[in-house]
Amino acid sequence: MATASGVALAILSATGKAETLRTYLLVGASGSLLLAFGFIIYFHLQINTLLPLVNPFDGQIIGTYKIPPWIEEEKLLFWSLGFSLVAIAINLRHSTQRMIITGVNVLLVALLAIMLFASNPFHPLLPNFHAEIIGYQQALMSGDPNAAFGTLQGLIGKMMGFYNSTYMWTHPPLLFASYAAFGATLIGSIAMLGRSERSVGDAVAYDYGRFGFIALTLGLLLGYPWALLAWEGQSWWWDPKINMAIMMWVFYAAYLHARLYKHRPTMWTATAILGISSFGVLVLTYLTTYLIPGIHSVVG
Amino acid sequence: MKKYDIGLIVVTVVVLAALGVLALGGTLYVWWASDVPGGFPGSLEYEEYAAVMNRSSLPLFIALVLSLVLCIPKRIIRRAHLVWVTLGIFLVSAAVSIIADPLLGASVMFLTAIAIQAAVIVMTLVGSKSLNFQTEGFFSQLGSGLLHLGTVLFLYDVLLLSTSSISHSLIFWSATFLITSGMILSFYQKELSRLFVFTREVQEPQTEDPKPERD
Predict the structure, then answer these.
(1) Per-residue pLDDT, B67
(2) Domain coordinates of chain B in residue numbers?
């Protein structure tokens, strides 16, 4: 539903007509995402209530899962939801800037399409978590406490260090909030290269770029003490995802610095190109999890 | 002073760009080497890769720290004395490193930078006119001060980590708070200035009688 609303929205944006209908479609797409996100939260609450880790010898509850709604394939849903809010704000504030509005809405459709066809959080729901817990549940139900206890040890470690970690509620959402904001920086930077919406493009790119950079920096900083705790004794320095995150931070820092000198010769174009290429590095950073083996990755 | 400022910015950007290139090279290498039997992360090859990355990045981190240490005294020290003061900090740090311990030598340099930067922040807060800032505006200058102090503290925390886990928590959270608040003040200085002026106007109503309205 969100994708269908988004496609209609992008087509209408390109024509520059039906402003009210566009607003309804955008709110419809965001509402669908919010509904999907609400279902994810409900599903996680069910895990918390119905799937406690139980000591197989005495039946005592050892711990319950408090899984945040942005793990596994849910990440892209959270990012899309954040960007849909950015899109609403830009559509309301810059409704006459056709290029920027079209760009923002097309990017929203692209995110929704990728989510639907390549990273659907509902098909299936939390496959990795399911794979982790199914062995323990089967052993528990078979009535073999020794086998269940064997699998329980690993589950407790991951529950405390990963799923229930306080950092899980700060590090990823800050990064996805920054990704959502940087989507607007991308569109604004592209508009900077055009003729009609140059100044508004720069304003949009910077407005969201500065917020995104604060969220990115804080998010990365909060990943540091978590890494020290969770990966103690393991090799995590120079992990590919961390390398790419450093690259991304450097690129956005360069964009913000270049913008200080935007009125000098060639710096306007250089700033716009940095704003665009930074988003390219952001996408590569996101894809690293799925392409290159490492401590952050789901491959290898 | 302007040439000195631009020179430092160029050095910082070059060092950061070099770190970015190194990080990209590392990522591409891990991708290329990822078919190691049993998995590359955690393997002996990974340890070797991490060691090479550490060795390659060390000069860049040292250059980054040096550019920060060069950047910090310029706020309160006149240009004529700046080079001598900076050289003095380096020489004392180098002497302590050679005589006593490299970590202690580095600590001398970091703690001096932290003390100078803390003084800059206090002077900014009390409205001192003797500070040299490129940017204008109270919030922008305070933001810059906090950001620099936070960055030095963060780098010092990374350096200390191998020896002290107790101080890590305090230094890390102080650095995080300073960096974040420094960024907010720097990036939103115009909005904060408008808000501050508006608040002051509301608190201090005009004493003069307003002009009578025309019919």
Answers:
(1) 82
(2) 1-71, 102-201
ipTM for the whole complex: 0.87
**Packing angle, helices B44-71 and B102-125, rounded to 10:** 40
Cβ distance of B47 and A235 shorter than 8 Å: yes
Give the number of other Cβ atoms within 10 Å of residue B50's Cβ: 16
User: How many Å apart are CA A116 and CA A125, to the nearest integer?
Assistant: 13
Specify whether the CB–CB gap between A71 and A126 falls below 8 A. yes
pLDDT tens across A55-93, in order?
888 888 999 999 999 999 899 999 999 999 999 999 989
| Residue A196 backbone phi and psi in degrees, to 5 | -80, -30
Q: How far is B73 from chain A (nearest CA, A)?
A: 22
Token code pair at residue B63: 């250059």
Judge: B41–A235 Cβ closer than 8 Å, yes or no. Answer: yes
Chain B residue set in contact with A, beta carbons under 8 Å: 9, 13, 16-17, 19-20, 23-24, 26-27, 30-31, 34, 39-42, 46-47, 49-50, 53-54, 154, 161, 168-169, 172, 175-176, 179-180, 183-184, 187-188
Give the type of residue at A169.
W
Residue carrying structure tokens 């139900």: A141
